[in-house]
Design brief:
13 helices; five-stranded antiparallel β-sheet; 10% strand; globular; single chain; 352 residues
């Protein structure tokens, strides 16, 4: 055991005792292997020093058991997520999404959803993310988020898996869109935009004769860009002409598309996207669904660490449910009410 100043701490060191903030909240638990980001957090909370595992003990342990390697357990959620990723990649690339193997897709989705308690919408990030895999990751995350939103909104149990399938397959039409358009790093031309919009009709045509899924699942592919006021595409449907599944998938799709990095843009702060969804609920998205979504994904216990857009790190101490995306933040004893400090916003939620 050794106590070292945070200024001398290096990535890879293992914490031996819980590290607490001055308010008594646990910042990091013992056994954690320190990263560069952790060191930044420790400095932000003015932690002077921490106890780490000494190098001598580490070396002795290596000598005693030279053949042993540390066991890293991967949670079943991530195992099933990776299987779903591989399956979707195969579905999209084999004959352009034609004749999707619905039974295999549904079985794998059910296996993933069995572990959905590990899925936190506001903080989840794939373990490995590459830009060329955006469409597959987005499809999986939209599926899981749509399942959660449907459940939170009180949809019957019989509708939950169909909504999840609708989210998973909503972008299948992109399998037949020119990949040069989908991966273009700058602004699309008018003609390219029109071609890209065709993925909705293409997706519906790929699914319309599949007997193993209901019409609501198929309409998610067609309608996920429709809007309540008729400003969406491809048909400009509005209100009750848009299927309930599609309304749910639309919210999940906007959230994940904006909070993920893509070829033509950087990821946007999750909290800023929630603010935009709130604004979109006045006319473009179903208000009740948006309200439930924002309330649920921001249900944090006090003490959750967040990073503001000015790079300061603090912890949530109070959330006013009338302003769920703008809680009160404690930064080294200074309380900042984000509902009053409009120039500030939460840039990132830091997982412990």
């Amino acid at each position: 055991m050794a106590t070292v100043p945070v200024s001398q701490l290096k990535p890879g060191e293992k914490i031996l005792d819980n590290v607490q903030t001055k308010r008594g909240s646990v910042l990091f638990y013992k056994g954690r292997v320190v990263t560069d980001k952790d060191i930044e957090i420790l400095r932000a909370f003015l932690i002077p020093s921490i106890s780490i595992e000494s190098k001598t003990n580490e070396q002795e342990n290596v000598k005693e058991t030279p053949s042993e390697e540390p066991v890293r357990t991967v949670h079943p959620f991530y195992v099933e997520y990776d299987k779903m990723l591989a399956l979707l990649r195969k579905v999209f690339t084999s004959v352009g999404g034609q004749n999707p193997p619905i039974l295999e897709i549904r079985t794998q989705l059910e296996a993933l959803i069995q572990h959905i308690d590990q899925y936190r919408i506001l903080t989840f990030e794939p373990k490995v993310f590459q830009l060329q895999d955006f469409i597959y990751h987005n499809s999986i995350m939209v599926s899981l988020t749509s399942y959660c939103l449907a459940k939170w909104s009180g949809l019957p149990q019989k509708d939950l898996m169909p909504v999840a399938l609708g989210g998973l397959l909503h972008d299948i039409g992109n399998a037949k869109v020119d990949q040069a358009i989908l991966s273009k790093p700058n602004k699309l031309t008018v003609d390219e935009i029109e071609e890209m919009k065709q993925h909705t009709v293409i997706g519906y045509n790929l699914l319309k004769n599949v007997t193993a899924i209901n019409e609501g699942v198929k309409l998610c592919a067609l309608q996920h860009h429709e809007r309540e006021d008729g400003s969406g595409y491809p048909t400009g449907n509005k209100g009750d002409k848009i299927h309930q599944y599609s309304k749910i998938v639309a919210i999940a799709d906007i959230y994940h598309a904006m909070t993920s990095a893509r070829y033509h843009k950087k990821a946007v702060s999750r909290y800023l996207v929630l603010d935009q969804l709130f604004n979109e609920s006045f006319g473009k998205l179903e208000p009740a669904l948006v309200q439930v979504f924002i309330q649920k994904v921001t249900e944090f216990h006090n003490g959750v660490l967040v990073k503001l857009n000015d790079n300061r790190i603090g912890e949530i101490v109070f959330t006013d449910r009338t302003h769920p995306t703008r809680p009160w933040i404690n930064i080294n004893g200074q309380i900042i009410n984000l509902s009053m400090e409009r120039s500030l916003y939460i840039q990132d939620v830091i997982q412990k």
